[in-house]
Amino acid sequence: MKYINRFKVAPGSKVKLKEIDPGFKDQHDNHKQASEEIDEDRKKLRKLQELFYADGRYSLLICLQGMDTAGKDGTIDHILGAMNPQGCSVVGFKQPTLQELSHDFLWRIHPHAPARGKVAIFNRSHYEDVLVVRVHDLVPKAVWSLRYDRINDFEKGLVEENTRILKFYLHLSKKEQLSRFKERLDLPAKQWKISEADYKEREFWSDYIAAYENVLSRCSTHDAPWFIIPSDHKWFRNLAIARIVVEHLEELDLKFPKPSVDLEHIRREYHASKKN
């Protein structure tokens, strides 16, 4: 079965994350065993993104959500590392500014939607306004509960303008998160990422899971699907997401545009230039 079908949240389904294994790694035992597939997918991704840019009919929006240490930054490095950066952008949505808070919650999102031919990756996204906002009671339930439909409408509008949307929830176990916190403590190159909030947010783990289940259940649509990616193994997370992006781009029947010039005329000019 294609990964794009295996990990997709079916529209209208009721998601229970405890029923999904965050340590799933398909038929692979380890990174070394999967390395050839990972390298092949990265090569395909590079070629397809070049074709996607040249074709110019579509734009692609990739949204990444997940608990702290789930691997949003690592995924971006893996995906963007295989693409030409001229055709890509990355936007990280952190705590909104005072100016952003003075507008509706989608105001800060729309300007970063990708242009045709381009790929945009959101590190966190408009979904923060039904996740952290909900968990920490930053706005009343009467406000955030209406946002699911507004998000679906927003994404529908993008799709109608030929934006393709892939949304990935990086499914991490609480045990693996603690292991990655320890790695941050032990490795000097990662200590700068340590925050006092790391352990405080763990106290809200079950609340976040409930919020994510609601998001995944209510906002996975045919044209803007959610994918639940097992992420306890970093290499499998990277493999699965790259494979899904590859499979999606392959379905678009992308083509290089026809030349806009008379090739025979250009050939004659080329040969004339060689004689001079």
UniProtKB/TrEMBL annotation:
Gene3D superfamilies recorded for this chain?
P-loop containing nucleotide triphosphate hydrolases
Which keywords appear in this protein's UniProt record, sorted alphabetically? Kinase, Transferase
Q: Where is the Polyphosphate kinase-2-related domain?
A: 32-253
Query: What's a GO biological-process term for it?
Result: polyphosphate metabolic process
Give the coiled coil ranges. Answer: none
One Pfam family cited in the UniProt record for this chain: PPK2
Q: Which domain of life is it from?
A: Bacteria
Which terms in the Gene Ontology molecular function aspect does this entry carry?
polyphosphate kinase activity
Among PANTHER family, the record links this protein to: POLYPHOSPHATE:AMP PHOSPHOTRANSFERASE (PTHR34383:SF3), POLYPHOSPHATE:AMP PHOSPHOTRANSFERASE-RELATED (PTHR34383)
Q: Which family does it belong to?
A: Belongs to the polyphosphate kinase 2 (PPK2) family. Class I subfamily.
Could you tell me what this protein is called? Polyphosphate kinase 2 family protein
Organism name: Telmatocola sphagniphila
What high-level taxonomic lineage is stated for the organism?
Bacteria, Pseudomonadati, Planctomycetota, Planctomycetia, Gemmatales
